Amino acid sequence: EEVRARALAADLNKYALENAQNLLTDLLTLGKLLGDNTTLVRYEDIIFDKPALAKMICDAIGIDVDATALAEIAARNDIRPEKEDQKAHIRNVSPGDHKNKLTPETIEQMNEALKPVFDLYYPDQRP
Asked: How far apart are CA 120 and CA 26, in angstroms?
């Protein structure tokens, strides 16, 4: 609760930059733990294409689910609030929302600090 209280009280840009090193360490450690059987999924794909996500999950774990059932599962879980509600569990799911909350300078510094993560997970893409 103390960590959450500090985070809520902090300036968002300052908080992001102060925690970049911890995030970098955690994501690089995760990268070392992931095996060849890991399926990497981009956040945008999770948000915008639930049917493809559901099929990919089934394919990855080797189960066959009827296309109609997959579509129903995807539709039930396609939750995208019309506007941000900071008190809701699902507040805002829009990819790129960080551009509305962080300064361009902070984004540039975060991109530079997390470059090893981008290189590891998305070697053919840059933020």
From this structure: 13
